[in-house]
UniProtKB/TrEMBL annotation:
Residues 11-156 form the Zinc finger ZPR1-type domain. It comes from Acidianus manzaensis. Keywords: Metal-binding, Zinc, Zinc-finger. Belongs to the ZPR1 family. The keyword Metal-binding applies. This is Zinc finger ZPR1-type domain-containing protein. Gene3D superfamilies: ZPR1, A/B domain. InterPro entries: Znf_ZPR1, ZPR1, ZPR1-like_arc, ZPR1_A/B_dom, ZPR1_jr_dom. One of its GO terms (molecular function) is zinc ion binding. It holds the Pfam family jr-ZPR1.
């Protein structure tokens, strides 16, 4: 199914302040995930761009575990919903959702590239060598997503999916 335009608005741009932001939201049905809202907002004046992916529906909370053991595993598609926490224990990586978190569709390698980009200059002087090695397929690791919305996915038959306990179950 092609994305279906569900909303198109002209808004005030948060960067330049002019009424030149074209905000388009689309409804997209993704296999194994369900309906997603794809947002693509662009300012015609200053070229500010905002893109986001959010679940339209929610499912049962779940935990996904994917062992990256060979180089081909780096090409597996990952969707991390805006509500999901991401962990890579072997690399000491923990990413928690924030108020303005956006959904992310990428590959496992792309997730590592985003983490390296976020860390920026903290990765100078070989501080992030293990992340670079993981991204290059030199060391195995486990990618874990914990998603209370239940909409995240890792597109592989190797992924282990378990029910995520809600706070009320503790």
């Amino acid at each position: 199914m092609e994305p279906k335009l569900i909303s198109e608005l002209r808004l005030k741009c948060p960067v330049c302040g002019k009424e030149t932001l074209i905000a388009r939201d689309y409804l997209y049905e993704a296999e194994n995930v369900g309906k997603l809202i794809l947002s693509n907002w662009t300012c015609e004046n200053c070229n500010y761009v905002f893109k986001d992916v959010k679940p339209y529906e929610t499912a049962e909370p779940k935990k996904l575990e994917f062992k990256v053991e060979e180089e081909s595993d780096l090409n597996v598609i990952v969707y991390r919903s805006p509500f999901a926490s991401l962990y890579i224990p072997e690399l000491g990586i923990e990413v928690y959702p924030q108020n303005a978190s956006q959904g992310l569709i990428s590959t496992v390698e792309g997730v590592l590239e985003d983490i390296l980009e976020y860390l920026g200059t903290l990765c100078d002087n070989d501080n992030c060598k293990d992340i670079y090695d993981a991204k290059d397929g030199k060391i195995p690791f486990t990618l874990i997503l914990e998603d209370p919305s239940g909409t995240s996915f890792i597109k592989s038959e190797k992924v282990k999916i378990t029910q995520l306990l809600s706070l009320s179950q503790y």
